[in-house]
Amino acid sequence: MDAGEISNRRNRKRKNVQAVDPVVDSVVDITLVYQHLHRKKRKFMNAYLIFVLAVLVGGYLLDLVVSFLELRSLQPELPTEFRDVYEKEKYRKSQEYTKVTTGFSLIQETVTLLLTLIFILAGGFNAVDLLARSVGWGSISTGLLFTGILVLLSFVLGLPFSIYSTFVIEERFCFNKTTAKTFILDLLKGVVLAVLIGGPLLAAVLWFFEITGSMAWLYCWLAVTLFTFVLQFLAPVVIMPLFNKFTPLEDGELKEGITKYAAQQDFAIQGIYTMDGSKRSTRLNAFFTGFGRFRRIVFFDTLVEKLQPKEIIAVLAHEMGHFKKKHILKMMAASVVQTGLMFFILSLFLGNEQLFAAFAMEHISVYAGLIFFGFLYAPVSMLLGIFFHIYSRKNEYEADAWAVQTTDDQGEGLINGLKKLSVHNLSNLTPHSLNVFIHYSHPPVLQRIEAIRQLAEELAEEKESVQQIKQIT
Ligand SMILES: [Zn+2]
């Protein structure tokens, strides 16, 4: 119960007891305030509330420590490996970029944490719930409205940060190409997509939990998994074209090289495209999308512009490594298992009264339970994220190795490509190992280059010894 509610109750009382004398009125106030404080006190003893607050504050403090270590491990001296591609001034700029972005995300996190704490402690969730209920819809529609309001609130909170990051920070470091029009259109498309995709999915989950009882988590798991697979097919054909233009790659040296490499690898492609990444940013990237018939190779136009064909083919060979080693499938399988686990744990907490008391809720509902569970699940999710990242970094080394083994330049194309990518994206060359451990899906570039060199040397030695054996025999 918050201050607003106290005054509401006071008004209600006023209506019932007309023309009460002011002394009585203030007595009523004092009891209400007492009840209010008393309830607050009980709320503070709730183990779930303590846990949720500890998770929020603990996560924040961890990020604070990691950011501090990250900034401290910046090295003003340019690593030898990068002497040929970096100018001193540009390297200084990359360090500046790390400092600015790290500082900025700390500010954003601090504001978000404070507002979240205030929202929880002031009974914000209950207020939103009462508001959604006041419309008088059925439970699933009310749930969609409740979630919609919360998403809207967090969207509004994030918007100034997103604007500042795009138009001030990225602009200052010459990454930004986004116009105000593109930015607004992106937002609108994002909202429409979130409503069209997230809405029915959430409705399905709510429906399963309300109708199917103890097996609901299983149905939800199946539904979400099915949905994810459908999205994987739809994304490259329907969703991504909404945001970017895909143009088939022009004929020439690059296309020839790619086609030749793909044929060597027995890799059937539906098309090679460039994407107008330059519409938003000057950053470089490349990826595979889709499955089977819809499989495409996509290069950002900025990548095609900045890298030599040999380097681009090395990047492609790296992506091919992910494909051949079935990394994408394994990652998807792991994420399917993760989803099942999450729904199962969710089903254990969904109707828990203490959990709802922690958030000062007057009514118990499936939809609010989903949100509150998100707070409980955060540490599990973070731990799983660390495992995913460890696994992903291992995969990156494997994909690099694949590229070295299947191209014939001893990894030089890949090394040069990686160096150009890092320079152009102003990546931090010397991240702190704790930050890498927690947040990095890719190993730091210097370690990758070292591993590539080592493998290339081993391969060369092997070749040599094979030739020597041939000569002897
Ligand atoms: Zn990769």
Topology:
Layout: H1 3-16, H2 22-44, H3 47-72, H4 88-121, H5 124-134, H6 139-172, H7 180-211, H8 216-243, E1 246-248, H9 253-264, E2 271-275, E3 286-289, E4 296-300, H10 301-306, H11 309-324, H12 327-349, H13 353-358, H14 366-406, H15 412-424, H16 433-439, H17 445-472
Parallel strand pairs: 2-4
Antiparallel strand pairs: 1-2, 3-4
Helix pairs in contact: 3-4, 3-14, 4-6, 5-6, 6-7, 6-14, 7-8, 8-12, 9-11, 11-14, 11-15, 12-14, 14-17, 15-17
Bound molecules: zinc ion.
Low-confidence stretches: 1-35
Strand content: under 5%
H/I helix tally:
17
Order of helices and strands: HHHHHHHHEHEEEHHHHHHHH
Q: How much is the radius of gyration in Å?
A: 28 Å
As for the number of domains, it is: 3
Please summarize the sheet with the most strands: 4 strands, mixed
Q: What fraction, in percent, of the residue positions are helical? A: over 70%
Describe this structure in words.
- By secondary structure, the chain is mainly alpha-helical.
- The protein folds into three domains: 4-43, no CATH class; 46-176 and 324-472, no CATH class; 246-306, 2-Layer Sandwich (Zincin-like).
- It contains 17 helices and four strands.
- The chain has helices at 3-16, 22-44, 47-72, 88-121, 124-134, 139-172, 180-211, 216-243, 253-264, 301-306, 309-324, 327-349, 353-358, 366-406, 412-424, 433-439, 445-472; strands at residues 246-248, 271-275, 286-289, 296-300.
- The protein starts with a helix and ends with a helix.
- The structure holds zinc ion.
